[in-house]
Amino acid sequence: MIKMRRAAAQLGVCYIVMASCVLGCGEKVKGVDPNLVKVTGKVTLDGKPLPKGDISFVSADNPGKGYTGTIDSSGGFSLAYSQSAQGALPGNYKVRIAAVDGGGGTMGAKGEVSEPKSLIPEKYNNPETSTLTATVEKGKSNHFTFDLKSQ
Fold first, then answer.
1. SS3 of residue 118 by DSSP
2. Distance CA 30, CA 85 (A)
3. I need a labelling partner for 134 at 20 to 30 A (CA). Which of 15, 64, 94, 117 fits?
């Protein structure tokens, strides 16, 4: 009788573990929010693709939350929360773009260190001064084009 109760208890534990895996396993267990949606786009400067840089979507409602992407040579980007979590949660965002050329410790002939040169106006590099915004929506294409002006 005791062996039968122990077997029933072990079987019950097995069912609970299996049910937990079936119901709870998936994206959340892996640390990926299932509500993330794909976000892509293109960045241009005066109508031409911005050849490099970084883009950040900073939540307008929760400034500590944001998503980033790298701008490729054609000006294209896609956002990610982490390496395993591509996309962004639906919401309203302030957009920050940074693009620099050179600098970062480049030493000149006379021993001077050159500072990086921004390829775009500095106002785009700060979510507080940037005029760029985006609204990410579930079920939409969420492809954004940002045409920056050098003047």
1. strand
2. 10
3. 117
